[in-house]
UniProtKB/TrEMBL annotation:
Biological-process GO terms, alphabetical: bacterial-type flagellum-dependent cell motility
One Pfam family hit: FlgI
Protein's job: Assembles around the rod to form the L-ring and probably protects the motor/basal body from shearing forces during rotation.
UniProt record similarity statement: Belongs to the FlgI family.
Gene responsible for this protein: flgI
Protein name per its UniProtKB record: Flagellar P-ring protein
C-alpha cells in the first residue's frame, strides 16, 4: 500500500510539474531572425502532353501566341498555320526561394492554369524562367506536373474531385542565380516576434540572458520594443551555433485577450485571458414558417362557360423559443464557456450574445469579426 501511495504521489508531482511547461514553446516557433526571409518567384509557361484537356486556342489567344513563339525558337515556322491542338495549356508558375539558397539547388513549384483547360493531369511543363520582384531570373522550372484532382464528364453526368487545373512539381525548379544576401552580411542580429507583445519580448530576452549568463558569463539579449530583441553573441562562439542554441530555448508567450468570430462559418474562438463582467443574458429564437398549398378549382360538371383555375392558399405560422435568463460572468475561460453552455446556444446565438455583451461594455477583450 505504501509503495502504491508513493507511486501515486510521484505521478501527481510529475503531472503538476509538467502542467506549467505545457504552454512553453521554442523561441524559433514565435520569432525569426530579421533579414532572413523568403522570396517569391513567378513565371509564365506552357504545359504540353495533355490528353485533349488543354486550352481552346480560339478562346485563349495567348496560348496560341506562346505556342507559336516556342516553335519559332526551335526552328519550326507555324505563323501562317491555324493551330487546333488541345494538348497545350498556358500556366502561371510560382515558387518560394528560401533564404541563403545557392546556385544548383532545387525547389518545389506550383503550376496553375491560365486559360480554359479542363485538366493538367499527365502534362509536362516546358522550361519556364522564374523571375523575382526585381525582374531578374533566379530559377528555371521544368518537369512532369503532379495533379491530385480529376474531372470526368459524359453526356448526362459529370464527376469532379479536387482542382484538376492546379498541380505541383516537386524539386521542379533549378536555382540559376545566388541571392545577394548572405548570413555574414547581416548588419545586426535582431529577433522579430511573429505576434508582437511587450511581455513576450521581455520573456524572450530574459530566457536568452539566463542561458548565456550560465554558459558564457555574459548577457546577450536586450529588448528593443514590443517586436524586436537585439542580440550580441559572445566573442568565443560561432554566430550560427549561437542562433541554433537560443532557438531551442523555451518561453511562455503572452497573448492579448481576444475573441475572433467568423460569421460565414459560425466559428467562435475565445482566448484564454478573456474576461466577462457579470451580466444577465437571455436569448430567444423567432421562427416564421410560410407554407404554400395551392388548390385547383374546377367548374361544375356539364358547365358551359367554366374553366379550371388555381386558387392560392398560404399558411403562416410563427413560433418563438428560448428566452431563458441566465447569468454569464467569470474570471477565466472555463467559467465563461460554462455560462454560455448553460443557456444551450448554437454558434449563431453565441455570436449574437458576444456581440451584445461587447456593446454593453462587459466583454473585456478585443472582438474581431471576420
Amino acid at each position: 500500500m505504501r509503495r502504491l501511495l508513493l507511486a501515486l504521489a510521484a505521478a501527481v508531482a510529475l503531472v503538476a510539474g509538467a502542467a506549467p511547461s505545457a504552454a512553453m514553446v521554442r523561441i524559433k516557433d514565435i520569432a525569426s531572425l530579421q533579414g532572413v526571409r523568403d522570396n517569391q518567384l513567378v513565371g509564365y509557361g506552357l504545359v504540353i502532353g495533355l490528353q485533349g484537356s488543354g486550352d481552346t486556342l480560339r478562346n485563349s489567344p495567348f496560348t496560341e501566341q506562346s505556342l507559336q513563339s516556342m516553335l519559332d525558337s526551335m526552328g519550326v515556322n507555324v505563323r501562317d498555320a491555324r493551330l487546333r491542338t488541345r494538348n497545350v495549356a498556358a500556366v502561371v508558375v510560382t515558387a518560394t526561394l528560401p533564404p541563403f539558397s545557392s546556385q544548383g539547388a532545387r525547389i518545389d513549384v506550383s503550376v496553375s492554369s491560365l486559360g480554359d483547360a479542363a485538366s493538367l493531369a499527365g502534362g509536362t511543363l516546358v522550361a519556364t524562367p522564374l523571375m523575382g520582384a526585381d525582374g531578374a531570373v533566379y530559377a528555371v522550372a521544368q518537369g512532369a506536373v503532379a495533379v491530385s484532382g480529376f474531372s470526368e464528364s459524359g453526356q448526362a453526368e459529370s464527376l469532379r474531385q479536387g482542382i484538376p487545373t492546379v498541380g505541383r512539381i516537386p524539386n521542379g525548379a533549378l536555382i540559376e542565380r545566388n541571392l545577394p544576401d548572405r548570413f555574414s552580411n547581416i548588419p545586426a542580429l535582431v529577433l522579430e516576434l511573429s505576434n508582437p507583445d511587450f511581455r513576450t519580448a521581455v520573456r524572450v530576452a530574459d530566457a536568452i540572458n539566463r542561458h548565456t549568463k550560465a554558459t558564457y558569463g555574459v548577457n546577450a539579449a536586450k529588448e528593443r520594443d514590443y517586436r524586436s530583441i537585439d542580440l550580441t553573441p559572445p566573442a568565443r562562439i560561432n554566430v550560427t551555433r549561437f542562433i541554433a542554441e537560443i532557438e531551442g530555448l523555451l518561453v511562455q508567450p503572452d497573448t492579448p485577450a481576444r475573441v475572433v468570430i467568423d460569421e460565414r462559418t459560425g466559428t467562435v474562438v475565445i482566448g484564454r485571458d478573456v474576461q466577462v463582467s457579470t451580466v444577465a443574458v437571455t436569448h430567444g429564437n423567432l421562427t416564421v414558417r410560410i407554407t404554400e398549398a395551392p388548390e385547383v378549382s374546377q367548374p361544375q360538371p356539364f358547365a358551359l362557360n367554366g374553366e379550371t383555375t388555381v386558387t392560392p392558399r398560404t399558411f403562416i405560422d410563427a413560433e418563438q423559443s428560448g428566452g431563458q435568463l441566465a447569468i454569464v460572468g467569470g474570471t477565466d475561460l472555463q467559467t465563461l464557456v460554462r455560462g454560455l453552455n448553460r443557456i444551450g446556444l448554437k454558434p449563431t446565438g453565441i455570436i449574437a450574445i458576444l456581440t451584445a455583451i461587447k456593446t454593453a461594455g462587459a466583454l473585456q477583450a478585443d472582438l474581431v469579426i471576420q
